[in-house]
Design brief:
mainly alpha; about 70% helix; 3 domains; Serine Threonine Protein Phosphatase 5, Tetratricopeptide repeat
Length: about 675
């Protein structure tokens, strides 16, 4: 009997699909294997390193609803933050796990793109021309897309998994739709399409285009008309559209992404649209000639149409051709629509003010260009054309491998960015941060100054320049930059604290205390800041206030030996000797190798008339810190005098003077002891 079961519209060939997946995975691994140790940079720092909501998986609400303070890359994107939390649970801040996740996501997206293309090339509009070559053509296009160097930012920068993850979910939605549209398909594919679409909506706002792409795909490749597609699969299309409600909720809670996206941020919709004319022209150029690739293009905005009229005319022409093709040549129109639709959320009229141009926005749009290139090559050269396409993919992989070398460390990637975008103040600022972290403070200062020359109102650059100068002991130069940062951001507790630290070094204790007090009003002070505040108060004689701050520092960090040492010194100055001895004793117990704590305890014990115990701690301090031998020999001499060991005391005073001839206390004590000993006949004249 003949087989009367419904024939699948898209026949499965799993062995060949597995082969394609293996090829894509191996090629991607070769291109990206050098990035597994690439450090967290740029938006990774607030979104991952300083993101407290990924430190635990429970309560899950904290993970899924991160606040603005966690960095704008994860706010309103619960799936992204959850993925980071899973990475943290598995390996803390070991960057290798994060890169492995990114690469896996990218490879999975590439495999899905291959699977989608293989099916589309066997649909009625394309079967006659491409059906027999669907496998190699789809693999060539997916390889070109997966290995293209324009994708490096989306894969190598960890936080840009926002782009690769949403791309993965968008492609999964389309793939599941195509499986659901097959004759005899099971309903689980419809469910998968809706779930993938919802997950994408919870990943990044660009997923808003997915239901539109599916409807357009249905009309172009499956049903033949919008009416037929809607009639046959109305329920699925409505369910996909319903996921927009989830996106609307997430966008409303994101609050304009911390003032980085939306209107009223200094960039009008018209200016942003003009800027995107230049940006899209650049993206297309980089798709065909990926050089130079730049991590950060800055915040430049085109203010006048005259600056971009050639790009604008070309874009209008391409958009018009896409609309015409959608009517007369639907398959070609679908490719053009894919490009424009997937770019629209980030490159249209809604300003993304802090990053007006960014390569990672081409993650999904690049698929349309890759497909058009492969189809064109095949149309011109047949199998040879596909060979050229594979050659281009290999070339792209080599360029990706070379580009990824720039991500070796923060210094190399920001040096590359500054070289390619010398007018970008933010690039100079981040390069300076990387140099400072590498211990190259002098070089960092030069780039902070360049950033401020390009953008004088750059508060963070003033702040970090002040820190670099302070680190080099140039407190006098640091103060004006901290003051400038405060004028730009008056509520910054950190700036008040660091300005206070600089003022203390200049001996301006009263002013320092004022800034510590201002910092306290702006926000809660950490233990270390309370400690510095207490020191400053003690230096200007406000001992009771100093004790209150030091007690708070002790409460916040009870195992910090230095806090107890400082507290002991202030207690001693306040005439509370027994309490001071207890604090010094606790400090020595916490850190037996702390020579300073032992010396301070020795001084307190001398004041308490316990010279034998003091001597023990002085001698231990001398063994621990021989570099302070001059001072400690004087202290040992003082303890020995109390114990009546005059000759030993004189020997230590003499040793102190040999090491430091200018030690006035040792000289005075030695003179006094010698004179007294001679009067008592203990020493010969």
């Amino acid at each position: 009997m003949p087989d009367t079961r419904p024939r699948l519209l898209f026949p499965e060939t799993w062995p060949r699909a597995a082969l394609a997946a293996t090829i894509l995975a191996l090629a991607a691994f070769v291109a990206y294997h050098g990035t597994f140790s690439a450090p967290f940079i740029f938006d990774d720092l607030p979104g991952i390193v300083r993101n407290p909501t990924i430190r635990q998986l429970w309560p899950i609400g904290d993970v899924l609803w991160p606040t603005q303070a966690t960095g704008t890359s994860v706010v309103g994107r619960p799936i992204v933050n959850l993925s980071l939390a899973l990475n943290y649970a598995l390996g803390g801040l070991d960057v290798r796990g994060y890169h492995a996740f990114n690469l896996l996501s990218h490879v999975a997206a590439g495999v899905l793109l291959f699977s989608i293309l293989r099916r589309l090339l066997q649909t009625a509009p394309l079967r006659e021309r491409f059906g027999a070559h669907a496998f190699p053509a789809a693999l060539a296009a997916a390889s070109l897309w997966t290995l293209h160097p324009l994708q490096t930012e989306s894969v190598t920068c960890v936080i840009q998994r926002t782009e690769s993850l949403v791309g993965l979910f968008c492609l999964l939605t389309l793939y599941a739709f195509l499986r659901a549209a097959a004759q005899g398909a099971k309903r689980r594919w419809q469910l998968l399409a809706v779930v993938a679409c919802a997950l994408g909506m919870a990943t990044k706002e660009v997923m808003v285009v997915a239901p539109v792409l599916v409807l357009l795909c249905d009309r172009t490749f499956v049903a033949g008309t919008f009416r037929a597609g809607w009639r046959q699969r109305r329920g699925l299309h409505l369910a996909l559209g319903a996921t927009w409600l989830l996106l609307a909720l997430l966008v409303s809670r994101a609050g304009g992404r911390g003032g980085t996206a939306g209107f009223g941020l200094g960039v009008s919709a018209w200016e942003y649209l003009l800027t995107q004319c230049r940006a899209i022209g650049l993206y297309v150029k980089l798709a065909f000639w990926p050089e130079p690739l730049v991590l950060d293009y800055g915040m430049g905005v085109v203010r006048h149409a005259g600056e971009v009229w050639p790009q604008a005319l070309l874009l209008v022409a391409f958009a018009g051709a896409t609309v015409f093709a959608l009517v007369r040549r639907p398959v070609l129109g679908f490719a053009g629509a894919w490009f424009f639709i997937t770019l629209a959320p980030s490159s249209s009229v809604v300003p993304l003010a802090t990053q007006t141009v960014s390569e990672h926005r081409m993650y999904l749009p690049l698929a349309a260009i890759a497909v058009l290139v492969v189809v064109s090559l095949f149309t011109i050269g047949g199998r040879r054309g596909l060979g050229v396409a594979f050659g281009l993919a290999l070339l792209g992989g080599g360029l990706t491998l070379r580009r990824n070398a720039d991500y070796e460390n923060a210094v190399t990637i920001w040096a590359d960015t500054v070289a390619k975008a010398p007018a970008n103040a933010r690039a100079h600022y981040n390069f300076a941060n990387a140099l400072s972290a590498a211990g190259r403070s002098t070089a960092a200062i030069a780039h902070y100054k360049t950033a401020l020359r390009l953008e004088p109102r750059y508060a963070a650059a003033h702040y970090n320049l002040g820190g670099a100068l302070l680190q080099l002991g140039r407190a006098g130069e640091a103060v004006p930059h901290y003051e400038a940062a405060l004028r730009l951001e008056p509520g910054s507790a950190d700036t008040h604290v660091n300005l206070a630290a600089a003022l203390i070094r200049l001996g301006r204790g009263t002013e320092a205390v004022q800034h510590y007090e201002a910092a306290g009003r702006s926000g809660l002070l950490a233990a270390e800041e309370q400690l510095r505040f207490g020191r400053a108060l003690a230096e200007i004689g406000r001992l009771d206030d100093a004790l209150a701050r030091l007690r708070e520092a002790q409460r916040l960090n009870p195992r910090h030996a230095e806090t107890r040492v400082v507290l002991g010194m202030v207690l001693s100055a306040a005439g509370r000797g027994p309490e001071a001895v207890q604090q010094f004793t606790d400090a020595v117990t916490m850190d037996p190798a702390d020579a300073g704590a032992r010396a301070a305890l020795g001084d307190a014990l001398i004041e308490a008339d316990r010279p034998a115990e003091a001597l023990t701690h002085y001698e231990t301090a001398l063994r621990l810190q021989p570099g302070q031998a001059a001072m400690l020999n004087t202290s040992i001499g003082n303890a020995l005098i109390r114990l009546g060991r005059v000759a030993d005391a004189i020997a230590h005073y003499e040793e102190a003077l040999r090491l430091n001839p200018g030690d006035a206390e040792a000289r005075r004590n030695l003179s006094t002891v010698r004179a007294a000993a001679q009067r008592r006949g203990l020493l010969k004249n």
